[in-house]
From TrEMBL:
Gene3D superfamilies according to UniProt: NAD(P)-binding Rossmann-like Domain (3.40.50.720)
UniProt similarity note: Belongs to the short-chain dehydrogenases/reductases (SDR) family.
Class of the enzyme per the UniProt entry, highest EC level: oxidoreductase
Organism this protein belongs to: Cohnella boryungensis
Record's keyword terms, sorted: Oxidoreductase
NCBIfam families registered for this protein in UniProt: PRK07231.1 (NF005559)
UniProt GO molecular function: oxidoreductase activity
Superkingdom classification of source: Bacteria
InterPro entries, per database record: NAD(P)-bd_dom_sf (IPR036291), Sc_DH/Rdtase_CS (IPR020904), SDR_DHRS6-like (IPR051122), SDR_fam (IPR002347)
Record protein name field: SDR family NAD(P)-dependent oxidoreductase
Annotated EC: 1.1.1.-
Amino acid sequence: MSTNPTKQGRLNSKVAIVTGAASGIGKGTALLFAEEGAKLVLVDLHEDKLNEVAAEIREEGGSCEIVCGNVGLMATAERAVARAVDVYGRLDILFNNAGIMPVGDILDYPEETWDEVLQVNLKSMFLMCKKAIPEMLKGNGGSIINTSSVMASLTEPGYTAYSASKAGIIGLTKEIAVSYAEKGIRCNAISPGWVETDMNVRLADSLGGMDKLYPIIKQQQPLGRMATTREIAYAVLFLASDESVVVNGSNLSIDGAASAAI
């Protein structure tokens, strides 16, 4: 975890759960949250990588706990929220970020793969919110941030379940926002475009290397490059912090102008 000389302690005394924290946007956000003073519960299915992130945070003086499990199961949501409350006494922030992206045409797409994508990408957020909101209501409210995608509204062939799940996330986000706004809970979504994640590295490998992927990125994302995970994390930090106290029910596009292009 590199030292950030501009850190301001924007999450001091806050307790946050981050799902999908072992890599990509989840890891980048967990590291930034720790730099800004948050106490963390990190959730992921990949225990070895999760322990590596936790070690990096602790080496820099941060405080974190880990929960290894499938976010699509109620038991994992229960364990994560219970760990936050048992260890830190409260829960202020939930970053629902875990997701998977199997690709395939709808005619060939296995029903079990559809179910898995919807379980991990969308149902997990329902489960985490269901368990987190009661604890947030015991305090002064809280901030929930859900990772959707530019592909919730702009898609391409092969992303059958992924696009459907990411569109559902935006609907869930808005419903929670309007239901709990008066009780001090905010719920917002982020919609990244191309980001430097392990998922996109694997996609590049399947196409024959990053050189094959970058012309596609340049065509789709006017920025001309992928965003870094830390660049995405700064947007999540804003939504998690008290600086965004009146931002609720929004979907923040973080896509290098991809959603603005023809």
